[in-house]
Structures are given as structure tokens and as C-alpha cells.
């Protein structure tokens, strides 16, 4: 397989390459994820003022209003942001994923577009709480070229180890990966991932994360959970955490109950996206569980009247959904 560059256009703000020891970070999102991405970047810049950073953002399209915000963000913190427009039609031939955007496949291809030695890949649903410098001090053995954090869901990890026939007995979360870019290219990770997608990905139940676990099996370095942290229960602390990752369907920019929402809101309020309201689910019967989450959100905010209002709406929608079934 010979896939040429998928980049149609690039836009760069505040070129940082004139500095020595530039640290590279990359994201892959679609235009609907601009707000969480902007908040994530704000948290990175706030907590890494002593580092020279260049952010590489791979997307299909951004509105001008968001491009202007990214430019202002770059100017404010004197850091570089480079935006790559990808040919999203390339991904349309791959298996659909229950309404999930084709952007879930961006990270399979975007590393090959980078002309750097090492890069930190981050999902956009994260908040940076401390310096990222420790990532760039990671040393790999001869066999390792991607640093990751264990998924920390024993039953699911065991199931997926068996499903994907993983030899190293571990399963990682692909939302945070520190990558030796040269070895990634040398090992043809992109081509091997696309081969699985094209040949038969019907048994993959977690999109590109499953494919990356298969292709990178035995070649990863497992690092401490503070580099990709999410709470497993209510007894947790964010002390020393570098990356707080908001995994799952409940996101802090939506009206729902989320652990450490206050941390995300702190950086959201300090960002250029602070004026955007929280996302509210459409009040239709199949969304009754989401409406219940809205009720929980308002109760957590001590907004009792709205909490009751949405709880009653939840009960009504739930009843309508059960009748339909």
C-alpha cells in the first residue's frame, strides 16, 4: 500500500522552530471538538510557560471564528500552533463506528505527516495539570517506541487481550501516547493499521485504539498513571497528576455529572471559548438517561429547581421510551 500525504493545507501561527529544544504535541479532531481542544491547549500553555512548544492539530475543517481564537491563543502564550487540514474523504471508506466521526482514525495517519523526532499525542478531552517535561525525558529500550498508560479496567483488558490475541498481556488507553516518530514510521505503523481496517475490522470494538493495541503489541513502554489519569472511584486525588483524561461519554463541557468538573471549568473560564454554553442533550425518549444526567448536574450545582425540572422530564421521557419498546 502506498498512501500519499493526506494533508491538503496547513496554517501556522507563531513559528516556534527558531528556538532550541522545541517540544512537539499533536492532536486529531474534527471541527465539533474545537471548544474542548481550546480548553485543553489553554491548560497546556498555562502549565508549561517555561517550554517552547509546537502544537500540531490535524482536522478536516475549522470555522474562521475558531481559527482566530487559535491564533490569539498562540500570540498570548508565545507558542506555536500549526493546523493541518486532512482529506477526510480518505477515511470514509473505512467501517462506520456507531455515529462516531471519521476523525477517530486521524491518529492512525497523522504521525507520518510529522517531520520531528519525538511527539506527544493527546486526545482533546484532557486537562494538563503539571509540566509535560517528564514525557520528553522518557528513554526507550531497543524494542520500545511508544509510551502509554495501562487501561486500568481489568475485566475489559482481559477480554480484549483475548479478543485481539495480545502477546504482552496488557491493553493501553491510546488517548495519551509519547511517540518516537522515526521508529513509528520505520515500523510502518500507519500502513499496518490501515491494512487491518481495509481487510477486516469487524471484530474491533473500540475503533482505532484496538487497532493500535494490535499493531503496537510488545513495542510499548508502560508509564505511571499520572501521565493519563482518570478516577476509578470517588476516592482519588489529582496531586502530581500531569494529564487528567475525561474518558467515556460523560464530558465536562456537557450538562452531566463528571468527576473533577471544576478543574475543567477553571481552564474553560480562562480560555477564549469561555462564552460557549454547556451542551444540552435533545429531549427525546431515547435520550432519557442523558436528561437524567442534566438533572444530576443541576443538583450538584445546588440549582434545585432545575434539578427537579429535569428529573421530572427524565421520568416522562423514560416512560415514553418504555412504551415504545
Automatic annotation (TrEMBL):
Coiled coil: none annotated. GO terms for molecular function: lipopolysaccharide 3-alpha-galactosyltransferase activity; metal ion binding. Its cofactor is Mg(2+). The keyword Mitochondrion does not apply. Residues 260-318 form the Glycosyl transferase family 8 C-terminal domain. Gene3D superfamilies: Spore Coat Polysaccharide Biosynthesis Protein SpsA, Chain A. Keywords: Glycosyltransferase, Lipopolysaccharide biosynthesis, Magnesium, Metal-binding, Transferase. Pathway: Bacterial outer membrane biogenesis; LPS core biosynthesis. It holds the Pfam family Glyco_transf_8. Belongs to the glycosyltransferase 8 family. This is Glycosyl transferase family 8 C-terminal domain-containing protein. It comes from Phascolarctobacterium faecium.
Amino acid at each position: 500500500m502506498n498512501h500519499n500525504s493526506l494533508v491538503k493545507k496547513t496554517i501556522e501561527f507563531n513559528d516556534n522552530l527558531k528556538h532550541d529544544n522545541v517540544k512537539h504535541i499533536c492532536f486529531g479532531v474534527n471541527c465539533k471538538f474545537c471548544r474542548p481542544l481550546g480548553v485543553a491547549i489553554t491548560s497546556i500553555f498555562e502549565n508549561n510557560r517555561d517550554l517552547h512548544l509546537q502544537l500540531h492539530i490535524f482536522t478536516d475543517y475549522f470555522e474562521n471564528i475558531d481559527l482566530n481564537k487559535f491564533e490569539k491563543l498562540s500570540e498570548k502564550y508565545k507558542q506555536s500552533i500549526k493546523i493541518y487540514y486532512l482529506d477526510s474523504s480518505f477515511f470514509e471508506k473505512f467501517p462506520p463506528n456507531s455515529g462516531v466521526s471519521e476523525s477517530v482514525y486521524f491518529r492512525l495517519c497523522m504521525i507520518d505527516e510529522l517531520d520531528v523526532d519525538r511527539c506527544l499525542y493527546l486526545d482533546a478531552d484532557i486537562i494538563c495539570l503539571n509540566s509535560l517535561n517528564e514525557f520528553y525525558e522518557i528513554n526507550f529500550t531497543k524494542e520500545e517506541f511508544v509510551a502509554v498508560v495501562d487501561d486500568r479496567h481489568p475485566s475489559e483488558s482481559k477480554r480484549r487481550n483475548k479478543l485481539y490475541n495480545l502477546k504482552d498481556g496488557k491493553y493501553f488507553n491510546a488517548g495519551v501516547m509519547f511517540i518516537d516518530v522515526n521508529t513509528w514510521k520505520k515500523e510502518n505503523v500507519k500502513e499496518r493499521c490501515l491494512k487491518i481496517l481495509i481487510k477486516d475490522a469487524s471484530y474491533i470494538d473500540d475503533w482505532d485504539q484496538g487497532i493500535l493495541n494490535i499493531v503496537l503489541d510488545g513495542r510499548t513502554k508502560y508509564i505511571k498513571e499520572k501521565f493519563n489519569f482518570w478516577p476509578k472511584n470517588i476516592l482519588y486525588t489529582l496531586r502530581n497528576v500531569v494529564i487528567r483524561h475525561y474518558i467515556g461519554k460523560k464530558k465536562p463541557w456537557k450538562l452531566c455529572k463528571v468527576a473533577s468538573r471544576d478543574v475543567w471549568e477553571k481552564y474553560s473560564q480562562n480560555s477564549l471559548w469561555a462564552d460557549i454554553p454547556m451542551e444540552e442533550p435533545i429531549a427525546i425518549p431515547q435520550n432519557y438517561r442523558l436528561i437524567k444526567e442534566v438533572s444530576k448536574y443541576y443538583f450538584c450545582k445546588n440549582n434545585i429547581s432545575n434539578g427537579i425540572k429535569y428529573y421530572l422530564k427524565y421520568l416522562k421521557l423514560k416512560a415514553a421510551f418504555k412504551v415504545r419498546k
